[in-house]
Amino acid sequence: MAPVILAVAETADGALTRLSTEVATLARQLGAEAGGSSVGLVVDASPDAAAAELATYLPRVVAVTAPAVGDEVWAPHAVAEVRRLIADGVTHVLVGASADGRDLAGTLSGLLRWGILANANGAGWAATSPEIEASVLGGKAITRSVLTGDTGILIVRLNAVTAAPVDAVGSVEPREPAGAATPAARVLERVAEAGAEASLEEARIVVVGGRGVGSADGFAIVEELAATLGGVVGATRASVDAGWIPYARQIGQTGKAVKPALYLGLGVSGAMQHRVGMQAAEAIVAVNRDPDAPIAEVADLFVVGDLFEVGPALLAELRARRGG
After folding, report:
1. Buried/exposed code over 267-277 (b: 16+ C-beta within 10 A; e: otherwise)
2. Strand, helix or coil at 225?
């Protein structure tokens, strides 16, 4: 039987997330390489807009209108719909490496006893199975892994592929919900983090503060530069662990992966765990007092100096060029 690759999409404010467009692209590519097919799934209270967008990446999309996900956690409802599609012939399931995606993958694996390949930075079809590439040991090594059976689940990290729509828009098949596959916890409260409206993963400019900023107050220059450049604030694990900035801003092996046009690092040493999350940036500029800081190995421009001197000078120059 030819493989059928399912891409499970996630939404934000009714639209597809960037990660979902990449997962869909990878599913289509794997389906073609395997001589099989691909399909997409959207499970949402109002899935129409996201499903229409997903159909620009895949030949067939199933759109499930599930009002319950407005008040309950998403994964149990998505799992139920994935199982219906597996009954229809789906052999492999691709999800994004998000909190919801991992919840779905874990629940599905537990119910079906399917294997999981996690944190894929890239994937291709190898004979009878997907083969993923993943970084391990804090990014010091790259592994390649395959599934041993004919079925399985892949958890895909951001930037594993470049999202690419197809020329011919696919079909959208509406479905009624099956109900949650497992008991679904109710959502009692939603809290929006300050600054969360700016997507770190999708930003074209990211300004990052490392241990060298010294304190939460030290992030002021990072925030000013990000605002002036029209970018987003990021952080290293050391800054997050120190409590200077929320975890949602962390970039690296245990945080988020970014691929901006410009990465500007202030006081970032460039430990391997951080570099695996940012070294795909188109241009990397770093400021550090230590001329031997590891970040220099990947930087396109490395400035040896005090970030509290270089940062304000850069800020002044940017403002002068913009007329104040």
Report:
1. bbbbbbbbbbb
2. helix
CB 123 within 8 A of CB 30: yes
Distance from C-alpha of 232 to C-alpha of 279, rounded to nearest angstrom? 17
Maximum Cα interatomic distance, the chain, rounded to a whole number of Å: 65
CB within 8 Å of 270: residues ≥ 6 apart: 286, 288, 293, 294, 295, 296, 297, 298, 299
Residue count (the chain): 324
Residue found under tokens 């079809």: 125
**What angle is formed at CA 7 by the lines to CA 277 and CA 140, rounded to 5 degrees?**
25
Cross-strand bridge partners of residue 12: 15
**Could you report the per-residue pLDDT of 192-246, keeping only the tens digit for each?**
655 444 578 878 999 999 999 999 999 999 999 999 999 999 999 999 999 999 9
Domains 4-175 and 205-321 share a fold: yes
Quote the tokens at residue 294.
């590891």
Does the 4-175 domain belong in CATH 3.40.50.620?
A: yes
Residues 6+ apart with CB under 8 A from 3: 30, 31, 34, 35, 36, 37, 91, 92, 150
Run of H or E residues at 117: strand 116-120
Which tens digit of pLDDT belongs to each residue from 241-284? 999 999 889 998 888 888 899 999 999 999 988 998 898 899 99
- Contact (CB, 8 A) for 9 and 24: yes
Q: Where along the chain do its domains lie?
A: 4-175, 205-321
Beta bridge partners of 116: 153
Whole-structure pTM over 0.85, yes or no? Answer: no
CATH code for the domain defined by 205-321: 3.40.50.1220
For residue 181 the two structure tokens come to 């596959």
Indicate the SS3 state at residue 263.
strand
